[in-house]
Amino acid sequence: MPVKFIYGEDTHSISKRVEQLIKYFTTQEWEIFNYIRVDNKTSAISQAIIEVMTIPFGEGGKIVHITDGTILNKCPDEIILSFKETLPKIPKQNLLLITSQSKPDGRSKAVKELLQHAEIEEFPLISSWDKEGIEKLIQAALKTHFLKLAPTAISYLVEAIGNNTARLDSELAKLAIYAQGEKLDIEDISHLVSNNNTSCTGLAHAIKNSKANTAAQILYRLLDNNEHALKIVATLISYFRTWLITKAGVEEKLSDNKISTLASLNNPKRLYFLKKEVETVSALKLKQTLIALIQLEGELKSGIDNFTPTIIKICTL
């Protein structure tokens, strides 16, 4: 196929895939001339078409990369006509590469025309609660790094790294150097890979259960491990938004399917555990906490750093 459309929320994996394609289509000596990124604006699409139709410089092929596929959603008729005329004629050594976090919009005439000549690859981000999916991701990554881990070590990484594919790559590369071909167990890796994900989960539960001392201890540990305040708050907001939707849905006697839809649960089986988690907490507390966390996020983004005292105060709501 002369066109490849790659999309998904796992931006790290998409970046790695782009690097693989660049190495496959271009030669190192001529990459600077034959890998071309175009501006993310509709007016640049014509430039991309012209570039992908011309022969490469020197050896190897050429990649023309549109880095935001959403610009194709609203194309003028002349662009659509140009696609019809040129896409079937792209030189076989060239590739029109389109990447996007969003799925191609099949309603767009330009996208419809493009997809007739395109190979699609999807890189979805595994849900942070999908432990089985994350374990499979780690198992696959271990083969790439020629690394062997004991089952307990893999379970530790599931909790410690979660669905962060960028960090997974970095940590496994470090462990592979440390291992020198030997199989590692949890004692080997626990002092090399910090477990901040579990700490964020513990912090959310401590706040929900009004345990200020526990929350403070976890928070100080997170900050000591250089965890960014905005990332911590974003994680907390995600937890409390899901908890609030679940609690409100239960109180309103909504069906499990309805609650799962409102909470954006990809796997409805997760709802059983969420219901258990909110049994002893009121919807009012969850709502007040969520509002306070959103306000804290806004303050942090505007440069007001009152992070730790605010988190402790939120525990008393």
Automatic annotation (TrEMBL):
Looking at the Swiss-Prot or TrEMBL record, what is one Pfam family this protein matches?
DNA_pol3_delta_C
Which lineage ranks, top first, belong to the organism behind this chain? Bacteria, Bacillati, Cyanobacteriota, Cyanophyceae, Nostocales
Catalysed reaction equations from the record = DNA(n) + a 2'-deoxyribonucleoside 5'-triphosphate = DNA(n+1) + diphosphate
Q: Report domain DNA polymerase III delta subunit-like C-terminal positions.
A: 203-305
Family membership: Belongs to the DNA polymerase HolA subunit family.
Gene3D superfamilies, per the entry? 1.10.8.60, 1.20.272.10, P-loop containing nucleotide triphosphate hydrolases
Ranges for domain DNA polymerase III delta N-terminal come to 5-120
Which organism does this record belong to?
A: Brasilonema sennae CENA114
One GO CC term, this protein: DNA polymerase III complex
- Please state what the protein is called: DNA polymerase III subunit delta
Question: Do the record's keywords include Transmembrane?
Answer: no
| Origin superkingdom | Bacteria
Please state the Enzyme Commission number of this protein. Answer: 2.7.7.7
